[in-house]
Structure formats: structure tokens, C-alpha cells
Specification:
Length: 87
């Protein structure tokens, strides 16, 4: 699946360019139920996660409940505080 990794990383690069140009964050997902935030987490793109947060993106995208969304965000911020603070 090497080609899939390159393609997914390329989609994050493209999305980051759009966000930096003023495009709004959107909670859309593909046919597999994966959105941009999912991809960023899967491929370890801290830079994209930070940009998504800074632009007001939904950090709970894909969580099955509000409790899980808060717990997931709290866990992420506890592990990597730099992702949860705007530079």
C-alpha cells in the first residue's frame, strides 16, 4: 500500500495549502469514513493537526459520542500539548 500512503500524504499537503489560503474546515469524510483529521493522525502529520486546530477544525471528528470526543481531545493535548496551542 505504499502508493496509498503517498496519495494520502499528498491529500494532506493539498488540504493544508487550501486551509492556509482561507478555505474553511469541513467535517466531510470519504467512502471509508475517513476525514482529513483521521489521515493526519494515521500518518503522523502533527503539522496538519496543528493547522486544523488553529483554523477551528473539529477536533472531535469521527468520535462516536461527545464524551469520547472530549476524552480524545484531552488525551491528545496531554500527549502533545504543542498540538493544542496556537503558535
Amino acid at each position: 500500500m505504499r502508493g496509498g500512503v503517498v496519495c494520502s500524504q499528498a491529500s494532506l499537503t493539498c488540504a493544508a495549502l487550501l486551509l492556509r489560503s482561507g478555505a474553511p474546515t469541513e467535517d466531510c469524510v470519504d467512502q471509508q469514513g475517513e476525514g482529513l483529521l483521521h489521515r493526519a493522525v494515521r500518518y503522523g502529520s502533527d503539522e496538519f493537526i496543528r493547522l486544523w486546530f488553529k483554523q477551528g477544525g473539529n477536533m472531535a471528528l469521527g468520535a462516536s459520542s461527545r464524551w469520547l470526543a472530549r476524552a480524545s481531545r484531552a488525551a491528545l493535548c496531554a500527549r502533545k500539548p504543542s498540538l493544542c496551542t496556537a503558535p
